[in-house]
Amino acid sequence: MFMMLPGIQPDELAFIQSLIKDMTDAQQQQFILFYQGKRRDQQNLTLMTILGFFGVAGIQRFMTGETALGILYLLTAGFCGIGTIIDLVNIKSLTYQFNQKQAIESASMVRMMSK
Question: Are 5 and 37 in contact (CB under 8 A)?
Answer without folding.
Answer: no
